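Try it yourself: sequence plus iron/sulfur cluster, in.
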Amino acid sequence: MKGYVGKILRVNLSDGRISKEEISEEMRRKFLGGRGFAAKILWDEVSGVDPLSEGNKIVFSTGPLTGLPLPSSGKMVIASKSPLTGGYGDGNIGSMAAVHLRRAGYDVLIVEGRSERPCYIAIHDEKVEILDARKMWGQMTFEAQDSLEAKHGRNVGALLIGPAGENMVGFATVISQRGRAGGRPGMGAVMGSKNLKAVIVKGTGEIPVFDKERLREMGKEGYGEIKVKENYDFWIRQGTMQVFEWCNENSCLPTYNFREGAFRFSKQLDGYALEGVKVDRKGCPLCNMQCGNIIKDAENRNAELDYENVGMLGPNIGMDDLRKVGVLNRMADEYGLDTISLGSCLGFLMEASEKKLIEGRIEWGDFDACKKVIEDTVKKRGLGEIIFEGVRKASERVGGDSRDWAMHVKGLEISAYNCHACPGMALSFGTSPIGAHHKDAWVISWEISTDRFSYSKEKVEKVIELQRLRGGLFESMTTCRLPWIEVDFGLHWYPKYLEAARGTGIAQEEISVLGDRIYTLIRSYWIRENRSWSREMDYPPSRWFEEPLNQGDLKGYTLDRARYDEMLSQYYEMRGWDEIGIPQKETLEGLGLGDVVSVLGKNG
Ligand code: SF4
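Structure, out:
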């Protein structure tokens, strides 16, 4: 099958071995690429290890559309066993490294082992080296990018960690191009545990495709179609920040550690406020939607904002100044911290402080204290030490009733949507394959515009449908889903793109099976790695069930636990998993995952 370079590059940092392997036809057919490849590799190769040990591996995985001249195709998936959750972790990132990796002749890079001293991997087509990074160790991500560009040229693709990754903060992420971030569940910490500061890639070859001319023509048509879409101009003005005001109006804005769904000062932070301070925009390679909003922050430096980071570092911590949010966000990018988890951790500390559960004080919206906590988190001291491993571990430390308002699922902090009155979105967070992240099923806009308060079977079906498309197809092709979601770029393009790239398209039925296979394999991974697996792992935090909203139009609302439970049971049934969410033998076999059966035991 064309559309693939066909090779996995494997670098072992313990003994310096570098090898190249073929990607089998079966692997291409069954797992497509990106997340599909990563899940299969981790299932086969990473079992029972401490995520920060030498035995863990980190997979940088592209798909058959990555790097081709098609809308928003400059993406790759970074995956590993997560130090934050203990389960499967991944994230996608827009980076020239994704494009260059394919041009250099590899679809996937697997890094294993641990280097004795700080190093980075330099890939230049056939030439692959492990180089000394001691001088870069300790550098912020932007500075490290400068150092690498000074040595290897401005046009290399780079994936880097900052001091947060080096020091293995649980929610350290990977940064590229001074602001693109990926790998929320601690992928940066895994790189740090391997003493791996960066991966840089320069590829000069051509990515082999089935029909180059048709692909180029269809790509051009696709870019053109996006630009004339009705919402395109507004998107260019605000990007994902266009939902801020909508979230506030619909009481789903994360506010005061998800206690509330609307923020009194929302007008100071919303998309229109952003337009007032925006100076530029940037984004991922091969994308004409460039959704990174650049502002001058309160320290007069450039910061890149989107909805998730403004939601979590704004209302969620009581911060009412967009330019101050910009500073916190830029600091997170420089240190290499995930902004969503950071906002949740800060909100957790503020609430713990308010309830006098911790000794140190940090008030809602205290900008200077937030800056200090960011630095202290990276250095594992003071209040930062409490949140070093995320809110789940923080609540174990702090005690009291903090477990009820440590806002995570499976250890991953919830992204910026309050679900007191959004049962479908709560289910989506509950069943997301990496912990509570919106990437896989952003069902909230459909939910609010249809039958918002119901716990219907239709809603469960919608969550699964979106998980198949967003988490299965898009994460594995691997392209950005936002053209489809945000400007209504036609889904019908993608089978055609796959056909021109591979010589074979993908039918609707195959998309469903692909998504189900990947989800079920990832679920199996979680169960294999978590011997104490229980149904409660798929629950959102108690706060949404027990503590009603106190403000706004939806004052008094909570989720209904019994009805959520019913939805969860329906979800399991539709997926062919048992009553505690373990895939059944017939399901595994039907999806071509027969090798998983014996490992899972009881049902499998
Ligand atoms: S829409 Fe935004 S996130 Fe998606 S590829 Fe473009 S710049 Fe990147």
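One thing you can check immediately is this: The longest helix spans residues 508-529.
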